Amino acid sequence: MADCLFCRIVAGEIPATIVKRSDEAIAFRDIDARAPAHVLVIPTEHVAAVRDARGAEGERLLGMLLRFAAEVATELGLDSAGYRIVTNTGKDAGQSVDHLHFHVLGGRKLTWPPG
Ligand code: DGP
After folding, report:
1. Does residue 44 line the site of ligand 1, with CB under 6 A?
2. Quick check: is 114 in a domain?
3. Is residue 113 in some structural domain?
4. Which atom from ligand 1 is nearest to the alpha carbon of 28?
5. What are 29-83's pLDDT values in tens digits?
6. Strand order in the sheet with 25-29
7. What is the domain extent for residue 91?
8. Can you give the CATH number for the domain in which 58 is found?
9. Which atom of ligand 1 is nearest to the CA of 14?
10. Is 21 a member of any domain?
11. Is the residue at 79 inside a domain?
C-alpha cells in the first residue's frame, strides 16, 4: 500500500535496522524502543491488523509470523531470560501503524499488565 509506512520499509523506501528477513516477513528494530530488545515483526504483504487476518490464509499467516517472532527472540538471545510478543489492534490498544505487527520485547523485567 503506497501510503503505508511499514509497506515503505518493506520496499526499502524508508531505512530500518532489519534483523531477520524472509519472503513473507521482516523483523526490524522499533524506532521508539521500550526495552533493550524491541523488534517489530511484520508480514511483507499489507494486512492492517490481526483482526483482518481471516480464514485459512489468515491462520497460516499468523502462525508463520508468531514462529518468525519466536525465532527472532532466539536469535536475540532472549530464550533463557524470557520475552514478550504483543500486537496492538485498533484505537483503544494504541495501534499507531495500520500494518499488522508483533512487538518482540525483552532484555529487561517486563511488568504485567501492560498499561
Ligand atoms: P503500535 O503502537 O503497536 O502501532 O506500534 C508501532 C510501532 O512502530 C511503535 O512502537 C513505533 C514504531 N515505528 C513507527 N514508525 C517507525 C519507523 O519509521 N521506523 C521504525 N523502525 N519503527 C517505527
Report:
1. no
2. no
3. no
4. 21
5. 999 999 999 999 999 999 999 999 999 999 999 999 999 999 999 999 999 999 9
6. 18-21, 25-29, 37-43, 102-106, 83-86
7. 5-106
8. 3.30.428.10
9. 18
10. yes
11. yes
Which pTM value belongs to this model?
Answer: 0.98
| Alpha carbon nearest to ligand 1 atom 14, residue | 31
Q: Is 32 in the pocket of ligand 1 (CB under 6 A)?
A: yes
93 Cβ inside 6 Å of ligand 1: no
51 closest CA partner among 85, 91, 16: 91
Number of structural domains, the chain? 1
Classify the C-alpha dihedral 7-12-15-20 as positive or negative. positive
- List, by residue number, the catalytic residues: 101
Give the H or E element holding residue 84.
strand 83-86
The answer to whether 46 and 7 have CB atoms below 8 angstroms apart is yes
Please give the number of the atom of ligand 1 that sits closest to the Cα of 87.
3
